[in-house]
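Customer escalation, tier 2.

The customer says the design service returned an amino acid string that "doesn't look like it belongs to this structure." They asked us to rerun it and document both sides in this ticket. The original structure tokens are below, unchanged.
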């Protein structure tokens, strides 16, 4: 998995199509901050969702494996006058949290855990970190997206300041993908800086996620797709899970 070192600087520009407001409203609908106060945002990245959660009244903490992402999140949050504790930690090594009301793993962050055992360990540690009645919210890439859509590469992007060429290949495990991306980022002197990023993601069938959640102790599992309240179809791209302790 990439450390997101240089990638942190261009991450926000490439995520403008993510409906963050819809994501935060999804959590607020089922776990309003008036009743579910303490929220941990796992895979918080540059802090966009953490800031939205804080503005909705949650007591937010953020966690990410990338120090560079956390540095940008800190700048964003402090710039908005928000006091959000940030932690550098892998989600499958989660520790030090207890009696949380809500835990989120947004924007396919869970897909960076490529071993089933690591996903299972993450769910178990999250279960232990939540209070009874606490809720876990996360989303993952669908099988269709991993096996079909991602295989339509190469993908390109050019907004005049950031250009990339993104090539994908199937991974060794089922429903996994190698992502190789070459970026060209315009600098103040109008020259372009070139750098490369490599990412590896894997997803699992919906039934496998359900089984892992249940093995960890979760019940009342709700599954929807693509930022809607509807059930997934064979061509859904993003699968959403809500599970209650």
């Amino acid at each position: 998995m990439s450390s997101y070192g240089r990638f942190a600087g261009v991450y926000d520009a490439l995520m403008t199509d993510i409906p963050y407001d819809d994501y935060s409203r999804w959590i607020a609908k089922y776990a309003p901050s008036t009743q579910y106060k303490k929220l941990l945002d796992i895979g918080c990245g540059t802090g966009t969702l953490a800031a939205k959660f804080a503005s909705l009244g949650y007591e937010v903490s953020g966690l990410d494996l990338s120090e560079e992402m956390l540095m940008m999140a800190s700048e964003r949050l402090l710039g908005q006058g928000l006091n959000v504790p940030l932690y550098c930690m892998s989600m499958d090594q989660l520790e030090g949290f207890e009696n949380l009301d809500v835990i989120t793993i947004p924007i396919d962050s869970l897909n960076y855990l490529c071993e089933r055992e690591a996903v299972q360990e993450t769910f178990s540690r999250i279960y232990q970190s939540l209070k009874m009645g606490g809720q876990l919210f996360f989303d993952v890439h669908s099988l269709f997206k991993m096996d079909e859509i991602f295989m339509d590469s190469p993908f390109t992007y050019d907004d005049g300041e950031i250009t990339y060429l993104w090539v994908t290949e199937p991974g060794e495990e089922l429903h996994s993908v190698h992502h190789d991306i070459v970026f060209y980022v315009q600098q103040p002197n109008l020259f372009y800086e070139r750098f490369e990023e490599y990412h590896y993601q894997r997803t699992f069938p919906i039934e496998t996620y359900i089984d892992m959640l249940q093995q960890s102790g979760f019940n009342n599992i709700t599954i929807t797709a693509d930022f809607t309240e509807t059930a997934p179809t064979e061509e859904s791209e993003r699968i959403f899970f809500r599970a209650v302790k």
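Tier 2 assessment: The sequence is consistent with the input. The chain is about 30% helix and 35% strand. The first helix runs from residue 11 to 14. Sent an explanation to the customer and offered a walkthrough call.
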